[in-house]
Amino acid sequence: MSIAPCTDLDEELQSDDAASPAPANDDLSRRSFLKAAGVLGAGVATGLPHLADAEARAAAAANTGQSVSITLKINGAEQPLTLDTRTSLLDALRENLDLTGSKKGCDHGQCGACTVLLDGRRVNSCLTLAVAAEGAEITTIEGLARGESLHPVQQAFLEHDGFQCGYCTPGQICSAVALLEEAKRGDLSAVTFQGGDVATGTLILDGDEIRERMSGNICRCGAYPNIVSAVWAAYKGASA
Ligand code: FES
Ligand code: FES
Fold this sequence. Notes:
This protein has helices at 6-19, 25-36, 51-63, 89-96, 152-159, 169-185, 190-195, 197-200, 207-213, 224-239; strands spanning 67-74, 77-84, 115-118, 121-124, 137-139. It has 240 residues and is α+β, with helices and mostly antiparallel strands.
């Protein structure tokens, strides 16, 4: 597979943009609604509908001798928890802490909807035991924005319409945030080897690289072209 130079990708993206009609008021309303609903993680979810269940599960685990008390550092805050040792990080986030931005798509490590960052590296939280995350800096979609200011990747997803239903979006965005850090470090991918960038020692994050590196995040709505555009725009903004 060949690697298109950035200028080609630029033209490709511009032509995609040109081919897309200007957003209608309905589209703007939809985006405004999703943003207000916290799909892009601009704010921490409100309401605590699961916590009574979580307490009941913790009490049940304590009775079976399978509970453990841990403290997780999530989005900069220490969160003491008593959990069944078998609890996944995803369930701890969603069911115990009501951080429901991370989504459960497959619960089998196949879709990426549950992606969060552990010490800046992306992981599938459905495959990570909560106890194994103790001591790490955990960042979820709720922790990316700074006050009212969206993370540049969140902003790029808004501007490039990188979502439809929004279910995969928190995982896509967390994954893209880590991807940009990987690019800064010069981490290689299978596509890099195919294109020969290894020989030059220079990693250029083009469309093929983005598609390869985001391939663990599935979008059942098929918003892939706009997701690639959003990630590429965030990359260009970060490297400008
Ligand atoms: S819910 Fe974790 S990969 Fe699908
Ligand atoms: S936007 Fe619907 S699953 Fe990706």
